[in-house]
Model the fold of this input.
Amino acid sequence: MTTGDDRGLRILHVVHGLPRGGLENGVVNLLNGLPRGQFEQAVCCLDRRGEMADRIQSDVPLWTLNRGRHDLRAPFRLAGIIREWRPHVVHCRNWSSWMDAVLGRLLARGDSRLVWSFHGFIDADRLPARRRWASRALAGITDELFAVCRDAAQRYADRAGIDPRRFEVIYNGVDLERFRPAEDRAALRRSLGMDEQRRVLLTVASLIPVKGHADLLRALAMLGRLGVELPEVWLVGEGPLRPELESLVADLRLGPHVHMPGHSDQVPGFLSASDLFVLPSRLEGMSNAILEAMAAGLPVVARAVGGNPELVVDGVTGALCRPNEVAAMAEAIGRLLLDPALGIRMGQAGRKRAERVFSIQTMLDGYADYYRRVCVRA
Done:
């Protein structure tokens, strides 16, 4: 396949929308980061636009279809966009966009290559039977498949009955300039309302069951029995579990120690001001939150689920805990709170690993090479 003009490869990204989220952040980084001249990009939001769209450069075409439930018009409207814009690659992500992208590409009757990428299970590590059958059918008429970590690729392939060799892997990347260790942590803590004298533990995640905040709170309540002074705890994020978590904080008598500021645009500052990052998720794909914490030079405590073991080197950049062992999480947190020097060493190792393996430039180079290869294989 050749581009046919001097604008480079045209990539149409098809997503459900661009609300706050790791997948959406990756799309925005691609839209803003792939080199102009070599790539021309556009994005189609099948549902709603979302606040992350405000970060996209203004000259990037963006369509919003406001798709309804079981909306039979959506594939036809997407086909019209494909015919008009004539992309070389249509790249759709996760289940929510796959069916409409396949139908839209077929209806457009063009020669666009169709890519589907899997970014992780949202709330359950399983596929209903109908989705397994549909996934195999859709994979049969999708040109290329990839996932954002090896675990996600293998899990989806196993559950859907797709040959895992069809999946390539492209890791997410992190902005090493935006997320970095603080130059003046004391001043940063003052600006965020943090105690300058106490150890600070941070997690950044939506307040939903799969993120495991309740388990983290129970682990914190165990620290006293381990002879560990409770840190100042910041749970950054918002979601439907807020009332339940606030009640649990009160029941566990953690109220003076736990802060829940909701969504924040100051996540880089929160990370740079903290001493320890904990992600208690019960299920993960490729965690941008962990990548950002590593880039900020924090040791990371996380469960050994999903792509987390591909990010955190246990005993080197942080600690990995078994999925259902809250006591093990408490012990790992306590060990790092009692030994600040160990936390600093692990955080420095994590920053170096982010620089070496997970920089945003490495990610952009990987996508650029992938899109070129996809078109060559046409």
In short: The CA atoms of residues 223 and 230 lie 7 Å apart. DSSP finds 14 helices and 13 strands in the chain. Residues 9-173+359-376 form a domain with the Rossmann fold fold (CATH 3.40.50.2000). The first helix runs from residue 22 to 33.
